[in-house]
Amino acid sequence: MSGERENVRGSRSRPSCDSSSGPRISSQSVILGRVQPQAPGNRTIYCNDRDANLPVRFKGNSISTTKYNFFTFFPKGMFEQFRRVANCYFLMISILSMTPISPVNPVTNVVPLTLVLLVSLIKEAFEDWKRFQNDMVVNNTLIDVLQDEKWVAVPWKKLQVGDIVRVKQDGFFPADLLFLASTNADGVCYIETANLDGETNLKIRKALERTWDYLTPEKAAEFKGEVQCEQPNNSLYTFTGNLIFQKQTLPLSPNQILLRGCSLRNTEYIVGAVVFTGHETKLDIFEEPPSSECFIPGWNLGF
What we know:
The protein is an alpha+beta fold. The chain has helices at residues 27-32, 50-53, 73-81, 85-97, 107-139, 194-197, 217-220, 282-286, and strands at residues 7-8, 16-17, 42-46, 142-147, 150-155, 164-168, 176-182, 188-192, 203-206, 226-230, 241-245, 248-252, 257-258, 263-265, 269-276. Strand 1 (7-8) and strand 2 (16-17) form a beta hairpin. Helix 3 crosses helix 5. Mean pLDDT is 84; it is low at 1-38 and 294-303.
């Protein structure tokens, strides 16, 4: 698998765009004796080396699930309302009632339609505000990131591809991670995937044996692997890639990947390297866009 650094927009219909910066030669590429050609469809990630990843301009880890912003709320909100056949029908009736030949007072049609649209827009605004608040909570959740041989708590939104992170028991994975080491024997950890597939039974993940020792911040700071893998996609159960580490190319499988949205169970903590962030994570690509229907429990507004 070739080693090109390519930036991909990992949203639901996010087009990919190549970086205009030239490739940076990593220590692993030097070991191989040549600069590897960059190939479309693959990405190269330099673990624990932000400077090497900087030219690629990977997407950040901040997420936004809102449907509107200040400028798009009214036009987009009205567009959503008039996608409904009933609203279009009553709009036509209201327009016809304003003609001189109409025997009906236009107020009897315009006022009800206006009220329906107003209530619907208020509902949309409230729901989008709740989404914004939820995004703020998630983006500002703290996670331990390796900095200068120490674990430093930083918000999820500041994570970058290639960062080394520590996730503690019962914590959620802040991004899609390459599993490096665990406090459990034999480099295994247990995860719960209820947020992905609804299953509550624990699943086992196992790190590559060559990375088991990189558990402490001092050892993790020495890890300088190069990950060559697939581009972001919505397949939750597949992963193809290689880890180039200590002059060896080690194949990776879904068994070494910890997906955002899963939580760590029965394990004191694990250490991992960030592979996909934010809207490029498999969970975010897999999820559908926010629905136009009301998601607040107990509400049933069929306007």
